[in-house]
């Protein structure tokens, strides 16, 4: 298993190398004079996606702004995480397609391997399959 940038899903989503991202960050910091888009104070050292990529934001200059690492970026990221978790809780729970509920009974998992005691099931004992 490979680790690092070559296996990063971020690289796949954004389509840029780490060098290209750093170059863009330096350019955007200079363009906005390192003024944090959250608190308005100078001295920002990072670039933030105003609308997060996970929420459909684009990786464009229009969606990127300078931000202080602490506390601005940490607080913004924490708030986005809390909002994302609460959104997940509000979604209706869908029944797994592999669950089969007999009428009035408890759902059982259907692995497609045959029922317990079924002679076609690979889990059946040797007597059930006709072996001695």
What would you note in describing this structure?
This protein has 132 residues and is α+β, with helices and mostly antiparallel strands. The protein has two domains: 10-90; 95-132, no CATH class. It contains three helices and four strands. Strands 1-2 form a two-stranded antiparallel sheet. Strands 3-4 form a two-stranded antiparallel sheet. The longest helix has 22 residues, at 69-90. Residues 128-132 have low confidence and may be disordered.
Q: Care to give the gist of this entry?
A:
Helix content is 32%, strand content 9%. The chain is built from 3 helices and 4 strands; from the N terminus they run ααββαββ.
Question: Total number of β-strand segments?
Answer: 4
Alpha-beta content class: alpha+beta
SSE succession: HHEEHEE
**Rg, nearest Å:** 26 Å
Compile the SSE list and pairings.
Layout: H1 9-14, H2 18-31, E1 46-49, E2 64-67, H3 69-90, E3 99-100, E4 108-109
